[in-house]
């Protein structure tokens, strides 16, 4: 008899424990002040993995709802494709100007942490 395969029902996802990298990303993003933004690359560098900008994006896509992922944009200030409307609303509620799918000038970049998070 062939082994049976188990499938995850549509709409469900398998959730495992966060990796140390993912935990550092979420902690760092929670430190970004309201009304400020950071790039995926900046967050990656701040958590010690400067080449992991895409992994930061993946982590934020699966992060808890209370994580202020809307404060992270591309290096050019572009919002997340497919999430632009909601992200723009959240940023505007914090006083960030958004125009044509990107953070408008002057871009309110956060300078980063003053000390390493624990």
- Oligomeric state as shown: single chain
Biggest sheet overview: 2 strands, parallel
Compute the average pLDDT: 89
CATH architecture group name: Orthogonal Bundle
CATH class descriptor name: Mainly Alpha
**Basic shape:** globular
Helical residue percent band = 25-40%
Radius of gyration using CA atoms only: 17 Å
Order of helices and strands: HEHHEHEE
- Separation of the first and last Cα atoms: 51 Å
Low-confidence blocks of residues: none
The CATH superfamily title: Winged helix-like DNA-binding domain superfamily/Winged helix DNA-binding domain
* Strand coverage percent: 5-15%
- The overall strand count is 4
Structural class assignment: mainly alpha
The third-level CATH topology is Arc Repressor Mutant, subunit A
Describe this structure in words.
- The protein is mainly α and 118 residues long.
- The protein has one domain: Winged helix-like DNA-binding domain superfamily/Winged helix DNA-binding domain (Arc Repressor Mutant, subunit A).
- It contains 4 helices and 4 strands; from the N terminus they run αβααβαββ.
- The strands form 2 sheets. The protein has a two-stranded parallel ribbon with strand order 1-2. The chain has a two-stranded antiparallel sheet with strand order 3-4.
- A hairpin with a 2-residue loop joins strand 3 and strand 4.
- Helix 2 crosses helix 3.
- The radius of gyration is 17 Å and the shape is globular.
- The model has no long low-confidence stretch (mean pLDDT 89).
């Amino acid at each position: 008899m062939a082994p049976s395969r188990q499938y995850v029902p549509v709409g469900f996802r398998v959730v495992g424990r966060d990796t140390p990298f993912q935990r550092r990303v979420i902690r760092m993003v929670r430190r970004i002040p309201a009304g400020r933004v950071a790039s995926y690359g900046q967050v990656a560098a701040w958590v010690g993995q400067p080449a992991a900008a895409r992994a930061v994006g993946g982590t934020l896509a699966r992060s808890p709802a209370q994580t202020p992922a809307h404060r992270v944009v591309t290096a050019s200030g572009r919002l997340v494709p497919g999430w632009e409307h909601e992200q723009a609303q959240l940023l505007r509620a914090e006083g960030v100007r958004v125009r044509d799918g990107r953070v408008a000038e002057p871009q309110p970049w956060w300078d980063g942490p003053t000390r390493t998070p624990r």
